[in-house]
Amino acid sequence: MDTPENEEKMLRSVALQNAGSTTLARDRAEAELLQARASLEERTKELAQQRECFQVALSSIGDAVITADTEGKVTFLNPVAETMTGWKSSEATGQLVEKVFNIINEQTRQPVTNPVHKVLKIGVIVGPADHATLIARDGRETAIEDSAAPIRDATGGCSGAVMVFHDVTGRRSVEAALRRSRDQFSAILNVALDAIITMDHKGKVSDFNPAAERIFGYRRDDILGRPIAELIIPERLRQRHYEGLSRYLATGEGPVLGKRIEMPALRADGQEFPVELSICRIAHSEPPIFTATLRDITERKQEEKALVERARLAALRADIGIALAGSENSQSVLQRCSQALVTQLDAAFARIWTVNEAESVLELQASAGIYTHLNGPHGRVKIGEYKIGRIAQNHQPLLTNDVLHDPNISDPVWARREGMVAFAGYPLVLEGKALGVMAMFARHPLSENVMTELAPIADGLAQWVRRKRVEEALRKAQQELQHHASTLEATVEERTAELREKIGELEAFSYSVSHDMRAPLRAMQGYATTLLEDHKQDLPEAAQQYLDRIYKSATRMDLLIQAVLTYSKVAKEPLILHPVDMETLIADVRHTYPALQTPKAIITIKGSLPRVLGHEVFLSQVISNLLSNAVKFVVPGVTPEINIHADQTEGFVRIWFEDNGIGIDSAHYHRIFEMFGGVHADKKFEGTGIGLTIVKKAVERMGGEIGVESQPDQGSRFWFTLKKANDSDNEQNLSTG
Description:
By secondary structure, the chain is an alpha+beta fold. The strands form five sheets. Strands 2-1-6-5-4-3 form a six-stranded antiparallel β-sheet. The protein is elongated and about 210 Å long. It starts with a helix and ends with a strand. Residues 733-737 have low confidence and may be disordered.
């Protein structure tokens, strides 16, 4: 049994133990508190460093930043935010965020709910408001884009909000300009007269403007998303389209991009028509997007075709006119006419028959094109047989653009095999009498203009045929005259009178034809010049070339006519011979023609030239022709040199003209004095071919002779003789030639 003393000892012992334990616990607690305080100080220091880094980062970024506490009061503004709002961070701290960050809708001008309040209310990130405008402290307005997010504490709760915003004024301007551009482009698409089609890299339609709907016959909604090749490109060209698109996608090479090309297109109803096409790639589009502009050029093509056709018809008239004015034999002239029909009208072949009156038969004289023989089944056609014979019999043309179904065409199988489409046959009729037939086949339709133009051509051929027959009759008359000259003086006189009458009629006829032809030639020159001067920019190059050919051909024809008129005048005009001073006349001629003056030409008179009996006008014609030929027919780059001198024999004076030109082969001496007898085909020596004929006739009319001595590349020596004039000589009347 414990005694009180023992209990006291035990209690004291327990108390001592408890006191030791308490002291130990207190010491341990104090140590832990010190350790916790040291850790807190370290964490506080780290937090301050992090806050400083965070503020430095916020101050250095390009966007404006504002932070707020849970009451929506500003706690921080970075420098960009200070600049944009007009508030210093120190001034803004503690202010309600909507006072510092005052935003309105730029379109309605109404206040916009501040994003910080949205974040504090719903606790999630808030995206940009549409069309927000910041009103700064000084009233400045800035278009902005903003967003806000909650600031979370350690427990995940919301301890505030951060808002980031930046100036989008430039972007808004770009967007507005882009909208205006898009609106303008849309307006252009809607009012454009040309078809504008957009397609993607797969060749599928992505846009189709109203003009495209009108031109191609498709509705926009029906064509979007469909391959363009299967809609507007003819089937024969589709493979080329796909290959070109594939090549561009693979290599970036597009030969047709940015260029204007012409090609056939296809309407919804299957009809083909010509278009002018321009394709470009829309810049910066990936994958590529292409825009094509197409213009219907049907009318332009028709106008171009009509213009070219008019030019070809004019060229045809000129070619046939030149052929008919030539000096070749009849068959060669008609062959040139047939060839002109083939060349200028793109005929498959053309033929000309003349009537053999004795046998009542059409005889084929010329054939050009795919058939050139003259001895086939249609070489001789009786009047009234086949379509050719019926044309001659009825004096009526036969015209068709539907050869296969025309009952007048006797061999439709041949026509189908050869692809013949059109036929035109015209009778050569003069004064109610058929003289022949002109006909042609073509593998394309002949327009009304062509049909109309063939009629006067046929009339011209008829006149030429009659003239040739008159000439043939004249030749026969001359032969008969020569045959009977030795025995039948009376007959000779009678026939001579008839012959002179025919010659007079022929000369009058030739003069009338030549004179009357000048008026339409001048009209051709005038119209061709007017078209070239007033409409050159509207004409294709080929049309300009045709007009130039028309003008040159008309000019040459006019020169030919003038030369023929001159020859006719020289041949029949009464003349009286006078004493003529040759040196004075040569000086006058040189003064009249600049090409005969120094330094263009060096002309020297050696010695003195005696006076001659001559006709001053005719002598001027002789001298100007001889000098002009000497200047013209020289090697390019060589200055013409002509020496003139004279010698005398038995009362006659021989005047020499010696040049340094290209010379003449002796085989051609006789030709150069004949009508159209030129021997130089090179275009740089162009001329009428009548000049020396006029010279010869003039010299002979004045009672003299003319000749030439020449070799190729050794120059020429032309001469003519006239009677020497004496002081006692009076005028001599040579009016009878």
